[in-house]
Amino acid sequence: MEDMWIMDFGCSKHMTAHRKWFSSLNPVSTKEYITFEDNGQGKVLGVGSVSLSAKLSLREVAFVRNLGFNLVSVSQLLGEGFEVHFKKGACRVLHAEETLVCSLLPFGQVFRVDLTSVFGPARCLVASPSADIWMWHRRLGHLSFDLLVRLSSMGLIRGLPKLRAEKDLVCHPCHHGKMVAASYTPVSQVMTSYPSELLHMDTVGPARVASVSGKWNVLVVVDDFSRFSWVFFMEFKDEAFGFVRDMVLRLRNENHKAMRAIRSDNGGEFKNSHFENFCRDLGLEHQFSSPYTPDSKLKQRVAPLRMQGR
């Protein structure tokens, strides 16, 4: 029965219990159940798309546990713009422009979808290319389906068979891999009131090329108010505390107004007991930027300053 689809007037949506039918399947976010005629229930495990023939693709098909038959909902077909005609023991599904989509054959007291065109001699023409293009899509590092089809038609890759892409092919890992976080809106207004009130600092390294003095790491400090920058070259990143300590003490002597805070990332060269004790003794607030937010850090400013420092 798993290879048979029954036309049903009573069910509210298309449904099947067999995973193999789905060309795409998404899990449901909430618990849903389908109530059977005997008042039993089957859990909805997901919703996806099923292609019954070259012309008939079912959308929003429920993947239901313990379902005895594959069911095609007449009401859902009508809602999707199809027409269902019954006449003298025959049933046909038509497009709105009255082109034949599929025929249904009598099966006892019900009608089953005629899948001869799919699972007869033409089965390899429908199922095989889709499976092949998925395999080659993954094998070639998730290359786009359109480019795969073009390469196969041009014969540019030895061993690549002729591929044919279907319209509803969606690779979810590709979508997830191409997602990027939205950029932050640039803040043009200065939030501080005087120089040295807030200092931003970050380290970069080790670099691929050493500086003139043979140093591989860089400490960059930027004043929030004036955008004046200091660049210190270091052999190791743990030297950052010494440079920051000397600079902060010098700025406190040069400026009449008190320094309020320093801001860094969560790197170990900043987040340690030396920095904590130093900030506590001087009454400085040590602020940390949010993880995985490069827009809020100094990475874009480090590269040109490092080149100038060489």
Automatic annotation (TrEMBL):
The keyword NAD does not apply. InterPro entries: GAG-pre-integrase_dom, Integrase_cat-core, PolX-like_BBD, Retrotran_Ty1/copia-like, RNaseH-like_sf, RNaseH_sf. GO terms for biological process: DNA integration; proteolysis. It comes from the Eukaryota. Keywords: Hydrolase, Protease. Residues 191-297 form the Integrase catalytic domain. One of its GO terms (molecular function) is nucleic acid binding. SUPFAM superfamilies: Ribonuclease H-like. This is Integrase catalytic domain-containing protein. The lineage of its organism: Eukaryota, Viridiplantae, Streptophyta, Embryophyta, Tracheophyta.
